[in-house]
Write a structure and sequence with these properties.
single chain; 19 strands; about 25% helix; alpha/beta; 5-stranded mixed β-sheet; 11 helices; about 500 residues
């Protein structure tokens, strides 16, 4: 069943640890229109370890950004994320009915999250792949789980901004929506990998014709590059971050200097001097014990424990009870959060809460990215001040030599993930779409293409929509486009599909 378009203007809000991104979208005669967008710094001290700790201050910052951007629409879709607080995985279970699956998920959720089952909200959706054999005894399920506290404080900030939340989405699906679904014009997209390079993590996901096939979080991203500069050059993190943004670049002529320690990959890569060899489809699968870290968990069992009752959200205001397929909020209910992807008829009774919604994405073939920003700088101990290197003495070669080991590690982890995908699905991605703040590192796309032997493109979600905001130059839009895929994908959530 395809997504039913609401036709209502919507604001997509992507709240990162350093930047808040907002995009307003509405339907137009020639397709989706972006009518406003804005980016501003996240107030210091409002987010810590992926949790909003000062919802009121954050909410006021969002309110100001909306006003400065000329956004008056109150209807919004946002997302939650975090390596330690939000889990998005594909799990495999014996084939069963949706009702049986709902009961199974209640029993099995604690097997897949690193925090207490009594402190989470969750949702799930079966994945139907066209190529799956009809007599297959197993089925795949997309599972999303988040800590209750993360959702509660997130929604409190949305209310403080004076907004009306329609749904909470997951970032991988939002990114695919803006980068894949808008560009394929109803045609099959093939296998596409999206690498969302933020600050704390790199979110990687492979999609087959817009359906999520393989997600993975890699704990190497922009912050690791900043720390490498700081440690190697003995400069404060704040200065290292500035140098990274202004001067850091991949020096392709120095790549092979840093080849030591890199493994030869299944993509015809030898160390850092990659070739254009194709993937060996017959490559061995990843080790069994490694599969959980790569986002796919086979052989889901059955457990005896009783599911815990979720705690109600502690927030002001009321959260509407949102229907999965119809997008419009029903009458206000008492505040509570729940990830609800079950298919309900209009007017049916569902638990009060916020939709963590991706059922229609999977059913209609649409699907799955999060630019976050670097952590605040730490002061340099007084005894080390005299040892700092002046920026005038820092050459471009020194900068690249400092960050090269991080890039080597990142490429190795991406390669490992792609090898696992190839071994499971017997095909390689046709291209890689790169996004996130760290994707702006000069020539990182060329570096990854050299390493992975797959075309790598820095994505721009604004190329497939009509764009109407005034006073924004093409240079500015090109500069910020890499951090907008999540917010664009959230804004268009109810504007695409059948």
């Amino acid at each position: 069943m395809g997504k039913r378009s609401s036709g209502a203007p919507t604001v997509g809000i992507d709240i990162g640890s350093s930047l808040i991104k907002v995009v307003e979208a509405r339907p137009g005669k020639s397709g989706i229109q972006i009518t406003a967008l804005g980016i501003s710094p996240t107030p210091p001290g409002t987010i810590e370890n992926d949790i909003v700790i000062d919802p009121q201050t954050l909410g006021q910052a969002i309110r100001r950004l909306l006003s400065e951007s000329g956004i008056k629409c109150k209807r919004c879709v946002s997302s939650v994320s975090g390596q330690s607080s939000v889990i998005v995985r594909i799990i495999e279970v014996p084939k069963m009915t949706r009702q049986e699956l709902a009961e199974t998920m209640k029993w099995e959720i604690e097997r897949h999250v690193p925090f207490s089952a009594s402190e989470v909200v969750m949702d799930f959706q079966p994945i139907e792949r066209p190529e799956a054999p009809p007599d297959d005894q197993n089925m795949e399920v997309l599972l999303a789980v988040a800590q209750q506290e993360v959702v509660n404080t997130h929604v409190e900030a949305i209310f403080a901004a004076g907004l009306e939340p329609v749904a909470i989405d997951v970032e991988p699906l939002a990114v695919c929506r803006s980068l894949v679904d808008l560009s394929r014009n109803g045609e099959a997209a093939g296998a596409v990998a999206i690498i969302n390079m933020g600050a704390e993590t790199t979110e990687m996901a492979v999609f087959q014709d817009g359906i999520l096939a393989f997600p993975r979080t890699i704990p190497i991203a922009g912050d690791a590059i900043t720390r490498a500069l700081s440690d190697t050059l003995n400069i404060p993190l704040e200065e290292a971050e500035r140098i990274k943004r202004q001067r850091a670049k991949v020096m392709m002529d120095r790549i092979e200097i840093h080849a030591t320690g890199a493994e030869a990959g299944g993509f015809g890569i030898t160390g850092m001097g990659g070739t254009n060899a194709t993937v060996d489809i017959g490559a061995p699968t990843a080790e069994e014990e490694d599969l959980s870290t790569l986002g796919f968990i086979p052989g889901l069992g059955y457990g005896p424990s009783e599911p815990e009752t979720q705690q109600p959200a502690q927030q002001t205001g009321t959260v509407p009870d949102f229907d999965v397929d119809f997008g419009e909020p029903a009458a206000p209910k008492p505040p509570s959060m729940a990830f609800d992807l079950s298919e309900e008829e209009p007017g049916s009774s569902t638990p009060a809460g916020q939709n963590f919604d991706f059922s229609a994405d999977l059913q209609s073939g649409t699907g799955m990215a999060q630019p976050t920003e670097p952590e605040s700088s730490m002061p340099v101990p007084a005894g080390e001040q005299s040892l700092q290197v002046s920026e005038d003495a820092i050459s471009d070669e020194m900068i690249f030599d400092a960050i090269a080991p991080v890039l080597v590690d990142l490429a190795a982890e991406i390669r490992r993930s792609l090898e696992y995908y190839v071994s499971r699905f017997q095909k390689q991605p046709e291209k890689i779409l790169l996004c996130g703040g760290t994707a702006k590192l000069q020539d990182i796309d060329k570096f990854l293409e050299n390493e992975l032997a797959i075309p790598v493109i820095v994505a721009n979600p604004l190329r497939n929509v009509a764009f109407f905001p005034k006073g924004m130059s093409e240079d500015y839009l090109e500069e910020v486009s890499a951090v907008l895929p999540v917010s664009v994908g959230l804004a268009i959530r109810d504007l695409i599909g059948e």
